[in-house]
Amino acid sequence: MKRLFQIILLLLSVSTFAQDLAVLSQKKQSEVIDQWLGERLETVLPELMDRTGIDMWLVISREYNEDPITKTLLPSTWLAARRRTILLMYKAGPQAQVEKLAVARYDVGTKFKKAWNPEEQPNQWKRLVELIKERNPENIGINLSKDFGHADGLNHTEYELLLDNLPASFQKKLTSAEDLAVGWLETRTASEMATYKHIQSIAHDIIQEGLSEEVITTGVTSTTDVVWWYRDRIKELGLETWFHPTVDIQRSSAESKEHLRTFDNHPKPEIIRPGDVLHIDFGITYLRLNTDTQQLAYVLKADEKEVPQYLVDALSVGNRLQDILTTNFKTGRTGNEILKAARTQMKAEGINGTIYTHPMGYHGHAAGPTIGMWDNQGKVPGSGEYQLYTNTVYAIELNAEVYLEEWQKPVRIMLEEGAHYDGDKVVYLNGRQKEFLTIPRQKSYLNE
Q: Are residues 112 and 34 in the same domain?
């Protein structure tokens, strides 16, 4: 009986935030990743090869110097390429399936079958050339790109070795696989999207837990303390982060200049006090997918039960800017065109804002159309000219600067939420922030 009582006490002591965080075991994560990869290779890849007109795609990497694409094609139990790993994908025609070969010493998972026997052909490059000749493709896509680092993974040495071994007649068929590579990285399947909401909800729950009285003791805890709590919490849950979180403060005092800080400077550590507006920038990696989220909290003063109305109104301006941006998402528009349309509407409504939205998926700052940058609100060369496609995910990232009479200066409403573009509209993965978090907590803050 005593033991049962101890267990009940232990369960009651567990954070109410933590109870909702369901992170799969490593084995189950492995199964999900491999299932998703199989679906993507059977559905996404052939459609993209047809769309981009590339019938053969070569992805070549050496161990620990992997092409970013290689890592998205490896099975879950492969944490890196082995020696030199060459993956060859060939689609013979519009109705054909994609042939997937590994010009390597081993099968690469269950999808890429070994196509090189060193006992028969000791030279790996010569075997690759034999496979290319047998298939005689119209073109050969390789990962070279000036606009997307994600699609520029064929390193100089491997490129030179490819040219050294490939006959001149096939060298003429080499072409950049940029559009295919970016399409592969940015396109999400129905299975991935079904889980992305859960991944975003985990990120939201961790943010809520950190920006609460469970972690923050007003007048004692510093922003740096909170940042390192997040790092420890992420590790404790068996998750990863793709960047070091930041927590910064805006406050009413004239000495506080946080609203003027440019994003190439890290915020200074500060002790958290009543009346502070806290801002967090935070992301996790789970099941090979990434989140990127920025949210706001307010530290209640002793005589306050709710957030001051002027801050509530300021947040609504940020939400309005989100709406302006997302309603301008139209299939086929470039990132620059979306930005221009949104900024035109923003200015017409008298909002002083900055838009710097980016794709999200296999990478936190992922491949796809760049929609503004914090230091460039005009045309973004290269990635800004890439078109918007359906079934893609974005971090809707922006800020609205709102002047507060009560502070005699502006507050910067910095927001970022993951969202899915389904070809018709933008849908937030797990809702978006429309109310400040309060410290101590008063009420739920996520709304559709």
A: yes
Pick from 161, 302, 230: nearest CA to 17 = 230
Last residue of a domain, one of 152, 170, 185: 185
Instruction: Write out 54-77 in H/E/C secondary structure.
Output: CCEEEEEEECCECCHHHHHHCCCC
Boundaries of domain holding 213: 189-447
Classify residue 20: in a domain, yes or no: no
Q: Is the dihedral of CA 35, 108, 44, 326 positive or negative?
A: positive
Alpha carbons 25 and 352: distance in angstroms, whole number: 45
166 and 291: one domain?
A: no
What string of DSSP letters covers 200-213? HHHHHHHHHHHSST
Tokens 């949210």 — which residue?
Answer: 295
In the DSSP assignment, the letter for residue 125 is H
On whether both 307 and 415 belong to a single domain, the answer is yes
- Helix and strand counts by DSSP (H, E) for the chain: 11, 19
Q: What ranges make up the beta strands (E) of 308-391?
A: 353-355, 358-359
Is 38 within a domain? yes
Number of domains comprising the chain? 2
- Do 281 and 388 have their domain in common? yes
For residue 293, which phi and psi values (nearest 5 degrees)?
-135, 135
Contact 152, 146 (CB under 8 A): yes
For 207, 226, 283, 446, the CA distances from 426, given in Å and listed in that order, are 23, 32, 20, 17
The pLDDT profile of the chain, 448 residues, written as one tens digit per residue, is: 333 333 223 333 333 444 457 899 999 999 999 999 999 999 999 999 999 999 999 999 999 999 999 999 999 998 877 889 999 999 998 889 999 999 998 899 899 999 999 999 999 999 999 999 999 999 999 999 999 999 999 999 999 999 999 999 999 999 999 999 999 999 999 999 999 999 999 999 999 999 999 999 999 999 999 999 999 999 999 999 999 999 999 999 877 767 666 666 777 889 999 999 999 999 999 999 999 999 999 999 999 999 999 999 999 999 999 999 999 999 999 999 999 999 999 999 999 999 999 999 999 999 999 999 999 999 999 999 999 999 999 999 999 999 999 999 999 999 999 999 999 999 999 999 999 999 998 755 556 5
Task: Say if residue 156 is in the same domain as residue 86.
Answer: yes
